[in-house]
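User: Here's a chain of 102 residues. Predict its fold as tokens.
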Amino acid sequence: KKQYRGMGFITLKPEGYYKGKKNTKQMMIEWVLEESHVVNGVKIDVTQADEKPEEDEDRKREDRVEERRLARLDKEQRMLRNLGGVAPHLIDRGQERLLPSP
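Assistant: Prediction complete.
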């Protein structure tokens, strides 16, 4: 019989009361991590996921702009090389250069 191994993620939302106390996030974490869990006779190992880091939207935008700029420069360099006979000083090395129009 084939054994499947994998990972699953769940999100729990504390609601209601247990033994007269309102359920809290910390209570649920403790319960889930301290109890043993068995599904179809298989003991399941449960761990808490790491907190997702807060994303810096400005930094993500800067990264996208820089990625597009480098892609554009790479494309321009390939086009210059494909034209042949272009002076080596016109093929830039990661810096943007302005070229006069023909």
